Amino acid sequence: MATIKYIGRTTDFRGKTLWEIVGNLKNFGVGRVVVRSMFERYPEPSFMKILNVEALPDEEPARKVRVTVEKTFRGRKYPNPVQIESVSYKADYRLLSKHEEAAYCKFTERQEKIFPREIDLPPLLKEFVARETGKPAPMVPIKLQAGRENRYRLAKEGEQPTVEVTMSIGKPASPSLYANCEL
Questions:
Q1: Hey, how many other C-beta atoms are within 10 angstroms of the C-beta on 72?
Q2: Residues 6+ apart with CB under 8 A from 159
């Protein structure tokens, strides 16, 4: 029995290139919905509705196409049309059938995560800071990085956080090593 040995780089892409999809559609797929397989890992729907298609000069070996789309990423629709050009050669797109479009493109509002304003320090650092400052339970403020796709924020004064952030070592691989320690 012969064994198979694969040579070369592997990818996580599943599907066809945009060139292959729009080239086989009437009116180059204007009005149809395309999904990038890489974005299907998110619970919220991510899809693109084709508005315009332009062929680009043929460059070996990739055939690229410039597609203007109405993009929805993780349930949030972009305010302006987006041009897809540099990633159109990737074999990671699939066309939604017309009967799938309504169910797939249904908007579901994503819940906003509210984080506490301060969290505990890691156990060892907590001991050092407590000895230095004299505070029994020192806390450190959280700083969240703002971004376009963020659906989280810090709790306002007196507001109850929806996310609990704890500092612990988790479940140890060998609990017997920690038998006589306070965690």
A1: 19
A2: 114
Global model pTM greater than 0.85? no
Contacts of 100 (CB under 8 A, 6+ apart): none
Contacts for 1 with CB less than 8 Å, ≥ 6 apart: none
Query: Which secondary-structure segment (H or E) carries 98?
Result: helix 98-104
Q: Token pair for residue 56?
A: 């680009």
Nearest to 52 by CA among 64, 68, 66: 68
Domain ranges of the chain: 18-105, 113-168
Tell me how far the alpha carbon of residue 21 is from its chain's centroid: 24
SS3 state at 126: helix
Q: Residue 30 and residue 70: Cα distance in Å, rounded?
A: 11
Q: pLDDT tens for residues 14-47?
A: 888 888 898 888 888 888 999 998 888 888 888 9
Q: Rounded CA gap, 150 and 56, in Å?
A: 34
Block residue for tokens 């890489």: 38
Which contiguous run of DSSP H or E holds residue 40?
A: none
